[in-house]
């Protein structure tokens, strides 16, 4: 590989990393959600757990909402076992909904299942 080709390749890699690093925070973190506290209760219809965070789909009055729960370590720390997030179970979610109009997406701070609280973010009021 010549010096010119290496420089072009390096510029391409740096550019790709910059695009990836600026696009990634657009969803992760809290920037995409409103500051307003939000509560919703529904029945779990689908579950996808893992990294970067788990997602639980719930049905509420015929509409599907996607709930972002914590990363596996965060759920475990809160005592929220995978078995508790099972299809057919009722769940109440306290957190923040998407700031994007019409998007039914909520970032959970705390969930309630069978009357038990699981606080995913103990340092935040929820």
UniProtKB/TrEMBL annotation:
InterPro entries: DUF6152. This is Uncharacterized protein.
